[in-house]
Amino acid sequence: MNPGADRRPSDRVDVCVVGSGPAGALIAAALAERGRDVVVLEAGRRFDPDERLEQMERSIRPGGGAVWEMGGERDAFTSTGERRYPLNAARVKGVGGSTLHWQGMVMRLHESDFERRSRDGVADDWPIGYRDLRPYYARAEAELGVAGADDNPFAPPREEPFPMPGFRPSYADSLFAEACGRLGVVTHSVPNARNSEPYDGRGGCVGYGTCKPVCPSGAKYTAEVHVARAEEAGARVVDRAPVQRLEHDRAGETVEAAVYATPDGRTYRQEARRFVVACGGVETPRLLLLSKSEKHPDGLANSSGLVGRYFMDHLFAGMGGRLDEPTRQNHVGFITSECHQFYDDPGRATAGIPGADADFAPLKLEFLNYAGPSPVEMALSADEWGDDLLASLREAYGNEIGMGALVGQLPRAENRITLDPSRTDDRGNPVPAIRWRIDGRTRRTIERANEIQRAILNELGVEITWTVGPENTGPAFHHMGTTRMGTDPEESVVDPELRTHDLDNLWIASSSVFVTGGAMNPTLTIAALALRAAERVDATL
Amino acid sequence: MELTRRDALAALAAGGVVLGGGAALTWEELRAEEGGNRDGAALDDREVETLAAVATALYPSEATGVPAFVETYVVGRIRDRRAYAEGVKSALSTLDSYAESWYGGRYAALDGGARDGLLREVGVATAEPNPDGLDPERLRYYLVNELLYAFYASPAGGRLVGIENPQGYPGGTESYRRGPER
């Protein structure tokens, strides 16, 4: 939508969706294609695909500014607690949401992830199980376009083949596979929301190597795909229209309007029969808290007091170094092999990895295709040139190799999103405050991931030069848990259908409804939940 | 290694520069297209020489054919981007001013050691690239990083380092699977 676009509200519509990331876009497309009248309100702007190459160059060249323009007063936040949370590196406001900059990894959660309390005696079970989501996972894979292979013996059961063949293993994967084989560690392919061949009108990957933060070719899925589908089916998508609050009826039982701001300083009310909030794990609880009223003094849908609580992310653990042979890194920006062998039993022993007897969180191992420096990025920040620069690049590039891991974090009530009354954004609204810390179980599991990584790298003959462990770990930018799902209105914010317990026409589609986060990248689960929620919303209309 | 116009075209294509049929990316052609308009994007002869001299200082000594590579690449980059062309011209003018003040001659007339030395003395080596910044920051952005990007984000420069499909270049999905040449 161009700067002079008409951002006035539509007459009362069937459904108003707040947010155009993967959840909002999928729901909008699904409902519009069922003939529903849909308006999507998106806080950020519409990025023209013609800008992508320039954005790619900006992502490589220093000094060009933030690729997706995050930061500034609009996106202000505060971070308190033990760990700083770098929120604006972790999200994008724009049509397509954070899929504009995501990596594109799309694994299903394991069955165990839905049963953490029953199996491990920690956290809580989800009110739905893998079986409930399974058909939606398959649909989500088809919608996003997932390239994958059926070679992962640890993946949860599936019947349908992946929509596209998986990306073949990298040369570095073959080095890892050999060493892992000797240790009894199994490597396998990994599903990517990235075209390995033309799919859904988009071309196959051409190897720009800048997937995160920007794919200039369109081979990587972004939610713009479903925004376009929604619009083709008649939905209206209004960009640069941040929703300020939701307003309810006199009884406080039904949402009547989303109040949104526009760039010209005006404020409008979009009325609808149903509302879906799909603003991610931070802005979703923030919007509910900003919408407090006399009937809902602690914020909308917050009779449980849990809106904003149980904020969690995945933690990164990593290790790498140098090998005495070429490793062929940085040709592509995505991962082609992982190991999920330790996911359900992180303490398990293999022929070459000693077992560990402790309570662990789930973990998955990644074999990197982009360890060490990218020569061009290094060149552009170097303080030398000519022959000296070439010599330095040759010294730095060629032999680096590395592993990553994601570790699941337990949901803890004290990790939470609140409003910071001392600081306001460009519209005068209190900014989100993030309080975040890491528990002992998570730290222990990061150490366990490091232990496995060290054994593999030692077996491969790597001189280890860097480690990301419990002290210097950081978030994987997967915000989850802040409007959790459950059957008991006193212990959850939304029901298993993703409808809020407190308001009868308000749904939430986001990783914010996750009860636990597992250790798998969350977007496929977000998409599956969104497709399921779309059916439920539609059924009530 | 010899840099060719074809190498420059590959680097341009990676950045999305679409070439019309038979368009020759030379300063002469660009000046003709612009009807000799002095406010056009085309560089004058002196600026062209200065730019090539900078590239020769920045690229490894084993690279030959630098002037033709730079001509093709930079013409392709700036011909539809007047503001960007202005940034490049202004940076070249600034560099020449330093050369004349400190070394008593234009940049292109300096020997290799002096060209290298002047860039360092201006502070380009450690400056943060910034199109709107101070002199060294603009020189870093419009000259040094522009030319290093052309070289190292394309297969020509990448190969010298050992990566034929560097970041920023759409080199396909085969190279990441290939082992090293032995």
- Low-confidence runs of at least 5 consecutive residues of chain A: none
- The N- and C-terminal alpha carbons of chain A lie at a distance of 28 Å
| Oligomeric state of shown chains | heterodimer
- Provide the CATH architecture of the largest domain in chain A: 3-Layer(bba) Sandwich
Question: Approximately how much beta-strand content do the residues of chain B carry?
Answer: under 5%
Helix and strand composition category of chain B:
mainly alpha
Ranges of chain B with pLDDT <50 over ≥5 residues? none
Total count of strands of chain A: 18
Order of helices and strands of chain B: HHHHHHHH
Fraction of residues in H or I helices of chain A: 10-25%
- Number of helical regions of chain A: 11
Residues in helix, % of chain B: 55-70%
Largest sheet of chain A: 7 strands, mixed
Counting helices, strands and paired strands, the structural category of chain A is alpha/beta
Biggest interface between protein chains, with counts per chain? A-B, 50 and 47 residues
Task: Kindly report the CATH topology of the largest domain in chain A.
Answer: FAD/NAD(P)-binding domain
What count of domains describes the coordinates of chain B? Answer: 1
Please sum up the structure shown:
The complex is a heterodimer of chains A (541) and B (182). Chain A has 541 residues and is α/β, with parallel strands linked by helices. Chain A has helices at 22-33, 52-60, 116-120, 130-144, 171-183, 224-232, 280-290, 375-381, 386-396, 440-460, 523-540, and strands at 13-18, 38-41, 78-80, 147-148, 164-165, 188-189, 236-238, 243-248, 255-261, 267-277, 315-322, 337-339, 363-367, 400-407, 416-424, 430-435, 463-468, 506-508.
